[in-house]
Write a structure and sequence with these properties.
7 helices, rRNA processing, two-stranded antiparallel ribbon
């Protein structure tokens, strides 16, 4: 059967798992990597490990990511395929990198509880809740990638996460035969 790999020549697909902080990106990406044997790339961790940032944002309490350095660091791995990229932004990654873009979404009261447990307060908390309310990441994904590869998945409960991992694992298994 002919391979349908988006013309990339990759033997394994690349997925982007994105969404507002607290929607379960890392949990989902880790479980999916374990289920599919794909490589999990947590961009936040990569930025810290390789110093791919331009300093620290005191107000938001996070590193100021250098998008060019991140893309340079990932280029060879992404061309090879077989990656699950986990990050709360998506518009700076090249469109050619991804075969599936997953936007995780969480109900606001659930998200609020998750973020406050992480210690988010003030503008960091309210900015992230507003981001989810206005579906900023879903819109960003739809503007940055072909609409047919973008999917929004609910991520409120452990059952949701397990179902998402199962659905995405099936997609990865069938990737070479999809037309």
């Amino acid at each position: 059967m002919a391979q349908s790999n988006g013309g990339s020549g990759r033997k394994k697909p690349n997925l982007l798992i994105t969404g507002t902080p607290g929607t379960g990106k890392t949990t989902t990406a880790s479980a999916l990597a374990e289920a599919t044997q794909l490589r999990h790339i947590n961009v936040g961790d990569l930025v810290k490990e390789k110093n791919l940032h331009d300093g620290w944002d005191e107000q938001l309490q996070c590193h100021i990511i250098n998008e060019d350095l991140v893309c340079d660091e990932l280029e060879d791995m992404m061309e090879e395929g077989g990656n699950i990229v986990d990050y709360h932004g998506c518009d700076f990654f090249p469109e050619r990198w991804f075969n599936k873009v997953v936007v995780l979404q969480t109900e606001n009261s659930v998200l609020y509880d998750r973020l406050t447990r992480r210690g988010y307060t003030g503008s960091k908390l309210s900015n992230n809740i507003e981001c989810e309310i206005f579906q900023v990441l879903l819109e960003e994904a739809k503007e940055s990638y072909r609409e047919e590869i973008v999917v929004a998945l609910r991520s409120d409960t452990i059952d949701d996460i397990n179902n998402n991992v199962s659905t995405l694992s099936d997609w990865v298994r069938n990737w070479n035969t999809l037309s």
